[in-house]
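Quick one - inputs below.
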Amino acid sequence: MDIIDKTVLTDENLIANFQKGDKDAFNQIVMRYKDKLTNFIYRYTYDIDGAEDLAQDTLLKVYINKDSYREIAKFSTWFYTIASNLAKTELRKNKRRQTLPFSAVGADDREFIASAPIDQHEDEQSGIRNDNKIIHESLKELDEEFRNIIIFRDIQELSYDEISKIIQIPLGTVKSRINRGRLKLKEIIKNKGVKRY
Amino acid sequence: MNCDNYKEKIMDYIDNQLNDEDKKIFEDQLKNNSELKYEFDEITELLKSLKDLPKIKANRDFMLSLNHKINDYESRQSNSIINYIKNVFSVINLTPSSNTTLAKLSLGTVSIVLISLMGYFAFNTNAINQPLMLSNSVIMNDSIEYAVKLDTTIYDSIKLIND
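Output:
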């Protein structure tokens, strides 16, 4: 029997194998997507612990609903649609909450808190870290319709076509929202005083 | 080129949406128009910053926690099958006290169904293409005949002793 190197298989091959009962194919999907997915949900919800939990819930949904995937769409499109719906629901829940627990402080904030220089001297590294924090905060201030599209395009690096299918809006609208979102984000960051802008 | 137009062109250029000719025109404008160049640099810097944001990685126990969730789901699924059977029994006024009792009842039901099916095939001599079941039928008929003979012998023996 030939031993197939699963790392070279496409996502679509892997899900097809999983649909036939190959659980190793599912493990390969998990290995391939766990970091990307956690990162995506974190940028969307700003809750690092919750992001990992939601990433697992997304993969659990893939596990349970594997047979509902049809190869007419790219696997990543189907996958991110599930993740984005879960993240959206979580975000709405978070908005209803009055106070945030410490665990909801973002990773950048944690890093910022843990490594803040004692003598207030801002070296280059802490400057970049601070800029990252501002960019992250600025993304949060973008309207949801622009934010999710910027995350998909400029952080997750999905194509216009994939984004159009995931959010279920026409390609032209995706394009105009990306353009407007980037310009709005640039303005927000500039107003926060980041030197590079 | 008006302001909105050149901002759109910047995005198209960055996202590789321009054809070769438009791309060339844009690159020429970029060399000669300082305002366009300034805007272009700002946007590319923004996109670089977004790409360079620290990547959050899943914890090492991610797979383990996911496996727990999958196991929980699968055990809930099997419990729901047991609950379904429980519901069926409750409809016919049987109240099994434990899952063991329930398992016994389920096994009993399945056995009755299997015996009924075997009986059907064994005694249905019209059934075709059932060589195994037909030979079973012969064996069963022989067994019944033998049992009757044995019974008669025992009856005769008892009668003899009593006499």
